[in-house]
């Protein structure tokens, strides 16, 4: 009898494990063909100057829609693509799409309109990264300063000299370098000194607590003051309420992004939303 029980306990344990594994294998199998099948789409989430209320740009956020799996969130598929190296090819698609889009909107809006693209650590190991970016920007004939690159501390953790050199080159080309999810890692302050950052994005977990947690709001206030004294621009992400926005305005946060101001949207919806006629 105890043998029976033991086996049940054991199989209950492997059940979860094998479910996780088969989900992973299924995702990996479909991910392999996703680019060729055109299953990826770049969405755009608006960013606003908090002082003037002006729309100044957008963050490019990747979406994957598979006929069998449905919509798979980036937090699930990006780590997989990162671990098997496919993120290099996928990342190239995002960069090319976003830069081409930046060209169109720059022309149609008749003013600088920035597009921010997220870069994964693995993309820095690709020796073509800088040349690819140069090529896309050259083809689009837009100022390099219209492209913002968002990286998290994960990129810097290796302490790799090649990452520092790549960021330096990209910065020298005129691209804007942004630290994403600031406050969630651990030696962020040191990174700010060692790498050529222009922008700091405060993680949404801080913004979420802004109006009901004194510590969170003091932290945000201090991060903004410190960033400004280091010459960095500050973006707050994950703004969902007016009261959060008002506090950020009071603290002189430069740029706001969040569901309150606009959700990530497909290109066409974004164009409708900002009042542009359809551009094919
Ligand atoms: P992230 O770069 O920090 O992007 C911000 C995330 O917050 C996005 O999630 C966005 O949809 C979400 N967000 C924006 N405003 C709000 C808000 O007001 N409330 C809440 N609750 N969430 C908000 P998303 O699109 O699911 O992306 C998740 C993460 O996946 C991104 O975090 C980024 O790290 C990664 N990711 C997305 N696209 C790409 C990509 O093209 N390349 C790479 N390497 N990573 C990407
Ligand atoms: Mg980001
Ligand atoms: Mg972020
Ligand atoms: Mg994030």
TrEMBL record:
The chain holds residues 519 to 798 of 798 of the full protein. GO terms for cellular component: membrane. It comes from the Bacteria. This is cyclic-guanylate-specific phosphodiesterase. GO terms for molecular function: cyclic-guanylate-specific phosphodiesterase activity. It comes from Pseudoalteromonas caenipelagi. One of its GO terms (biological process) is cellular response to nitric oxide. Residues 24-278 form the EAL domain. Keywords: c-di-GMP, Coiled coil, Membrane, Transmembrane, Transmembrane helix. The keyword Coiled coil applies.
